[in-house]
Design brief:
CBS-domain; about 45% helix; 5 helices
Length: about 140
Amino acid sequence: MPTVRNILQEHGDGMVVVDVRATVQEAARLMAEKHVGAVVVTRGGKVAGIFTERDLLTRVVAPERVPRETAVESVMTTPVACCQPETTRAQCRAIMRSKRIRHLPVVESDRLLGMVSIRDILEDVAAEQEQEIRHLYEYMHGAR
């Protein structure tokens, strides 16, 4: 069964990181530049939290906080649900569904290796299904 390690190898680490001292404005700008919906927040190289588009809306915009004056540490989500390289796609989907999240940092021995999103997982599933359909078609119609 495909694992997070396979997804990272196929899609890249998908990781965008900010330090706990970064402002919300810096984090949001980085998210926009990198076209991601979340950044991993680190302290001393270790995962301290995650800051998502949902955090931006519910903890900064809605309460009218000033992004350039707000430390990302004060509005990030903690504790962070994480997965390991050997976590399966199905296990990732189950974690995401139960916690109602779309991003999972990938850690191994307290070391941040990357991040997978629900999009990464679904693209991986779709690619596998396309390959299976192609094989079935070739079987039914003869390889050409």
